[in-house]
Design goal:
The chain is of the alpha+beta class and 703 residues long. The protein folds into 5 domains: 2-76, 2-Layer Sandwich (Phenylalanyl-tRNA Synthetase, Chain B, domain 1); 87-298, Phenylalanyl-trna Synthetase, Chain B, domain 3 (Phenylalanyl-tRNA Synthetase, Chain B, domain 3); 309-347 and 356-373, Phenylalanyl-tRNA Synthetase, Chain B, domain 1 (2-Layer Sandwich); 390-596, BirA Bifunctional Protein, domain 2 (2-Layer Sandwich); 612-702, Ferrodoxin-fold anticodon-binding domain (Alpha-Beta Plaits), CATH 3.30.70.380. Helix content is 29%, strand content 25%. Helix 5 packs antiparallel against helix 8 (271-286). The longest helix has 17 residues, at 680-696. The radius of gyration is 41 Å and the shape is elongated. The protein starts with a strand and ends with a strand.
Length: 703
C-alpha cells in the first residue's frame, strides 16, 4: 500500500521524518519496503514522500491511513488524531436484519453469509466534475487514477478508513431495490472495465429488480457507474465475506483495491462512518443534499471480542518485568478497551479479528514495547538428557532388529478403500472390515483410514517388481485405526508387518541356488528372532487365513496369546496385486508385543562343566496337533530342572516303516547342573519321564 507522508501527518502530527518512520513501522510489524518520491504529472515542482508498505494477510486494518497512523502512534506513544465524522448526516438510520427501506430505496440481504452487512445512503442534486487539486493530488500520490469528484471521494475514504465504497448512478437501479445475493447460473454483468466475467452460483453480486449491477466486493457495473450526467448517487458501504471474495477473484483472475481489502477482512462496523465521511466530502466538493436517512441492514451484531491477559504469563513469555498498567497502556494505544484486575480483560475492537487468544495479546504487548527493549536473558533451570519411554525403547529396538535382518522400512499411505480388503480376501466379519470412513475423501482410493498394513506393503512390492527389482524385503511399523463408540476417538493400535520375495542374501559364487530364496522357514526364523529380541518366546500354530496360502500359513503366538499371522501370500491375492513369484508376509499386533515385552536380560557365568546330551525320537500322527513346538514344550515340562536345551534335528516319514499318516520327530536334549556333573541315574530318570510323557500323548518312542 502507498502511504503519502503528508497525508499520514494529518492523523499523526508528531510523526518522525520519513526515514525514521520507515524504521519504526518495520520494527513494529508493518514492513516498509521502500521510500519513494512521487512527483505530480501536472506540477513538476510538487513532490511527495511515499512509504510503500507490505501488509500481511491477517492485518487488513493496516490497509488504511488511519490503520498505519494508529500503529505508528502506538509505537511512538503519541496521540492519534482521527478525522471528524458527522454521523448526524445519516439521519435516523433505518436498521433491520434482512430488509430495510428509507423511503427512497430498499436494501435486502438475501445472502447473509456472503454479505453480513450492507449500508446505503442516497445523495441528490450532485454535480459530477473534476476533483479539486488537493483531492486529485492526494489520490494520485496514493497510486489511484483521479476520475471525478464523486469517485475520487469514495476512493479517498477507502484509503483513509480502509472501507471500500461504491457509488451507483441511482437512475439505473430498477425499482430502487438493492438485493445482495448469489449469482444465478448463466447471469452476466458488464463491469466498469467493460469486461463480462462468467459468473457462477458461488459469486456474490449486487442486483436490482432486473439483474446483477455489480460484482460484490470486486468491481461495480458499467451500466450503473457514475458519469458526468449523474445527479443522484447511491453510496454503498458493505462488509463481505473474505472467503467468498477470495474465491471469486482467484477464479476470475481479478484483483482490485476493493477486493484486496475485503479478502483481508474489513471492519464490519466501518460502514456507517464511511458513509458519513464520503457524504460530507461529496456535499463539499459536488454540492447536492442527502435524500432521506441511511439504510443499514446487518444480519448480526459485531461486538468486541473479550480476551483475558495474565500479566505474569505475559512476562514469563517475553522475559520482561512489565507492570499490568504498562500492558494496559500498550493495548489501549492499539484501540483496545482494558478492564484492570488480577487478570486484564481486553475488549478487542472489530478491526482486529486476528487477535483471538492470550498469546495474540502478548505479541501486541511485545510489538508496542519494542523487541529491542526486551532484555537478553538466558533461560534458567536445570536441563537433563531426555529418556525414552518403555514403549519408545521397544519400538526403537524392533526397528533396529528388522533393519539388521535386511528389511527396508517403508511409510505407506494411511488410507485405503474397501477394494484393498477385497484383494486381501478379508471376510465380511473380519475386524479389518470395521472401517473409519473419511467425511471428505480426496480420491476413490483413499476413503477410509487403514485397518491393516498389508495393502501398502504388497503395493510397494508390485511397484518394485514392475521396475525389475527382484529381491525385495520391506517392513512397516505404524498405526492402524478402528472406530470406537459414537463420540469417542478411534482406537489406534500399532502393527508391524513385512513382505519379502527373492533372495535375502547378496548373490555370490559360493551361494547354492537352492538356498538363495526366501521361504516359509526363513520368515519363521526372522519372526522367532524378532520376538526373542523383545524377550518373548514364539510359537507357530497351523491355521487358515484367507490372505495366505493354506499350505504355508501359521498363526503366531507369543506365550499363549495370538499376536498375528505369517506365511506365503495366497496366489489369488498375488494376482490381484500383479505380484510375481512367491511372496512371504507377516503382520503382528505390536501394541500387544509392547505390553508383553521384557527388556530385562538375565546373565549367568559360562558353564564350567560339560553338558550331557541325549536323543529321543518319537513317532506320532502326522497332524497339526503333534507339531514340533508342542512336543518340545511337553519334553521341557517332563524332563525336569536340569534340562538346558531342546533342539529338533530330524523329521522322518516312511509309510512302510512308520505306517500311513505317521511321522517321526527327533530331538536333542542337553542336560547340565550348575555345580556338579550329573549321574547316569539322574539322566536315565529324566529320560524315563520324557518317554512316559510322549507315550501318554499317543506317541511311540523309537529305540
Amino acid at each position: 500500500m502507498r502511504v503519502p507522508y503528508s497525508w499520514l501527518k494529518e492523523y499523526l502530527p508528531q510523526a518522525p521524518p520519513p526515514e525514521e518512520l520507515q524504521e519504526l513501522l518495520t520494527m513494529g510489524g508493518l514492513e516498509v519496503e521502500e521510500l519513494q518520491t512521487w512527483r505530480s504529472p501536472e506540477e513538476a515542482a510538487l513532490e511527495e514522500q511515499v512509504l510503500l508498505t507490505s501488509v500481511t494477510a491477517n492485518r487488513g486494518d493496516l490497509l488504511s491511513m488511519i490503520g498505519v497512523a494508529r500503529q505508528a502512534a502506538a509505537l511512538q506513544g503519541e496521540e492519534l488524531r482521527l478525522p471528524e465524522t458527522d454521523l448526524s448526516l445519516l439521519g435516523e438510520v433505518v436498521r433491520d436484519c434482512q430488509q430495510a427501506c428509507s423511503g427512497s430505496f430498499t436494501v435486502e440481504i438475501a445472502d447473509p453469509v456472503g454479505c453480513p452487512r450492507y449500508s446505503g445512503l442516497l445523495l441528490t442534486g450532485v454535480t459530477v466534475r473534476p476533483s479539486p487539486d488537493w483531492l486529485r493530488q492526494r489520490v494520485e500520490a496514493a497510486g489511484i487514477r483521479a476520475i471525478s469528484n464523486v469517485v475520487d471521494a469514495t476512493n479517498y475514504v477507502c484509503w483513509e478508513l480502509g472501507q471500500p465504497m461504491h457509488a451507483f448512478d441511482f437512475r439505473f437501479l430498477q425499482d430502487r431495490h438493492i438485493i445482495v445475493r448469489r449469482a444465478r447460473s448463466g447471469e452476466q454483468v458488464m463491469l466498469i472495465d467493460e469486461s463480462v466475467p462468467p459468473l457462477k452460483e458461488e459469486d456474490v453480486v449486487i442486483a436490482d429488480a432486473f439483474g446483477a449491477v455489480a460484482l460484490a466486493g470486486v468491481m461495480g457495473g458499467g451500466d450503473s457507474q457514475v458519469r458526468e450526467s449523474t445527479t443522484s448517487v447511491l453510496l454503498e458501504a458493505a462488509h463481505f465475506d473474505p472467503t467468498a471474495i477470495r474465491k471469486t477473484c482467484l477464479r476470475l483472475g481479478m484483483s482490485t483495491e476493493a477486493s484486496y481489502r475485503f479478502e483481508r477482512y474489513v471492519d464490519p462496523n466501518l460502514t456507517l462512518p464511511a458513509l458519513a465521511r464520503a457524504a460530507a466530502l461529496i456535499l463539499e466538493i459536488g454540492g447536492g443534499e442527502i435524500a432521506g436517512p441511511a439504510v443499514d441492514v446487518a444480519t448480526r451484531d459485531f461486538p468486541p471480542r473479550q480476551v483475558s491477559l495474565r500479566p505474569a504469563r505475559c512476562n514469563a513469555i517475553l522475559g520482561t518485568d512489565l507492570t499490568a498498567e504498562q500492558m494496559s497502556e500498550y493495548l489501549t494505544r492499539l484501540g483496545c478497551e482494558v478492564r484492570d484486575g488480577e487478570t486484564l480483560t481486553v475488549a478487542v475492537p472489530s478491526f482486529r479479528p486476528e487477535v483471538e487468544r492470550e498469546i495474540d495479546l502478548i505479541e501486541e504487548v511485545a510489538i508496542v514495547h519494542g523487541y529491542n527493549n526486551i532484555p537478553f536473558t538466558v533461560p534458567g533451570g536445570l536441563t537433563g538428557s531426555a529418556r525414552l519411554t518403555r514403549e519408545q525403547e521397544i519400538e526403537r529396538r524392533a526397528r533396529e532388529l528388522l533393519r539388521r535382518c535386511g528389511l527396508n522400512e517403508t511409510l505407506g499411505f494411511s488410507m485405503l478403500c474397501p477394494a484393498d480388503l477385497e484383494r486381501l480376501q478379508c471376510p465380511t466379519d473380519a475386524p479389518e472390515r470395521r472401517l473409519l470412513g473419511l467425511s471428505n475423501p480426496q480420491s476413490a482410493e483413499a476413503v477410509a483410514l487403514r485397518t491393516t498394513l498389508l495393502p501398502a506393503l504388497l503395493s510397494a512390492c508390485a511397484y518394485n517388481q514392475s521396475r525389475r527389482v527382484r529381491d525385495i524385503a520391506l517392513y512397516e511399523l505404524n498405526r492402524v485405526f478402528f472406530p470406537r463408540a459414537e463420540g469417542e476417538l478411534p482406537e489406534e493400535p500399532l502393527r508391524v508387518a513385512g513382505a519379502l520375495t527373492g533372495s535375502p542374501w547378496t548373490a555370490g559364487w559360493n551361494l547354492p541356488e537352492e538356498c538363495a530364496e526366501v521361504d516359509f522357514f526363513w520368515l519363521k526364523g526372522l519372526i522367532e528372532q524378532f520376538l526373542r529380541e523383545l524377550g518373548l518366546g514364539a510359537d507357530f500354530r497351523p491355521g487358515e487365513h484367507p490372505t495366505f496360502a493354506p499350505e504355508g500359513c501359521a498363526e503366531v503366538y507369543a506365550g499363549e496369546r495370538s499376536v498375528g499371522w505369517m506365511g506365503e501370500i495366497a496366489p489369488e491375492v498375488s494376482a490381484a496385486y500383479d505380484l510375481e513369484g512367491a511372496i512371504f508376509a507377516f503382520e503382528l499386533d505390536f501394541t500387544v508385543l509392547q505390553q508383553m515385552a521384557c527388556l530385562t536380560r538375565a546373565y549367568q557365568p559360562v558353564p564350567r562343566l560339560p553338558a550331557a546330551l541325549r536323543d529321543v525320537a518319537v513317532a506320532v500322527t502326522d497332524t497339526p496337533e503333534f507339531s514340533a513346538a508342542r512336543l518340545e514344550a511337553e519334553i521341557r515340562e517332563a524332563a525336569g530342572e536340569f534340562l538346558e536345551r531342546v533342539q529338533p534335528f530330524d523329521l522322518y516319514s516312511d509309510p512302510e516303516r512308520l505306517g500311513v499318516g505317521k511321522k517321526s520327530l527327533a530331538f536333542e536334549l542337553a542336560f547340565r547342573a550348575p555345580d556338579r556333573t550329573l549321574t547316569d541315574e539322574e539322566l536315565e530318570a529324566a529320560m524315563a519321564r520324557v518317554h512316559a510323557r510322549l507315550t501318554e500323548l499317543g506317541g511311540e518312542v523309537r529305540k
